[in-house]
Known about the structure:
By secondary structure, the protein is an alpha/beta fold. The chain has one domain: 3-Layer(aba) Sandwich (Rossmann fold). It is about 25% helix and about 20% strand. β12, α5 and β13 form a beta-alpha-beta unit. It binds S-adenosylmethionine. S-adenosylmethionine binds near residues 208, 232, 234 and 235. S-adenosylmethionine binds near residues 54, 208, 233, 234 and 255.
Amino acid sequence: MTSLWGDVQIAPSYEPDTPAVLFQGDRLDLLRQIPDGHTKLVVTSPPYNIGKKYETKIDFDEYLKQQKETIGECVRTLAPDGSLCWQVGNHVASDGEIFPLDIFIYRICADLRLKLRNRIIWSFEHGLHCRRRFSGRYETILWFTKTDDYTFNLDPVRVPQKYPGKRHFKGPKAGQFSCNPLGKNPGDLWVIPNVKHNHIEKTIHPCQFPIELVERLVLSLTNEGDLVVDPYMGVGSTACAALLHHRRAAGAELQAGYVKIARHRAGLAWEGRLPRRPVGRPVYVPGPKDRVAQMPPELDLVRRSLRTTR
Ligand SMILES: C[S@@+](CC[C@H](N)C(=O)[O-])C[C@H]1O[C@@H](n2cnc3c(N)ncnc32)[C@H](O)[C@@H]1O
């Protein structure tokens, strides 16, 4: 397999000059192979300890201890100008009480002397329908840096302005355009569809990242040739985003089936053939003529009868 960047090389264990290292095994066994200061960006979504098919639910304190071990080892590998982005939702206890994981992860990272730069809200429309609380439709990304001297490239991730023709209306710049022609800062509320059944990137993994989400982090927090690491890589979405933009990638995953898919996707990303949702495509809004967006008459009858009996 080749690309403009040369032949694809996907190594099974860490080699500093190999573009992609996709390791099958525990995250600490990969991280310990990476020398101090080699990583520019860590992006990951760990298991939430909620009993998904790829995890065994454990005591919450033990879970946090394991998260601390992973983050500590990530920080050791981080370059001084590097960043760590931990994407999490809620841990849900057996009685339904929720524990927003970012509250706990923040404390761990602050104790490791990382500095929080943004708490990004990732909002999406689809997911489980809850019966005894409002359905969860956002998760967070905690973006930390190791020092105050960190890489942040805003221009590659600017988004279109709402009013690009707006002008300064008073003062010395009166009459001149007030917007940056490259677009505006995307802000810290990101509306990006999550990968559900009809998504073009869907694999067998139940919780994969949309590639666009990682691309924004890769483009803004790294430069070409930098190393991007995902200690819980799943089907390799982080690696794909890194390779698409000529960064190096390393990831660890316990499940052999997911690693196989990650290697396949990384090869396609390298060749520019990976099926993916284009960056910046607006979220789909059904039109009035879409059949599934119309209330079927038989359901409408049920709805009316339920309303009158309330
Ligand atoms: C939330 S998923 C990450 C999905 C990923 N972001 C993607 O786009 O495919 C967490 C992954 O961590 C893996 N995992 C769990 N414990 C692990 C460990 N100790 N070392 C490496 N991977 C682990 C799980 O098998 C699961 O695929």
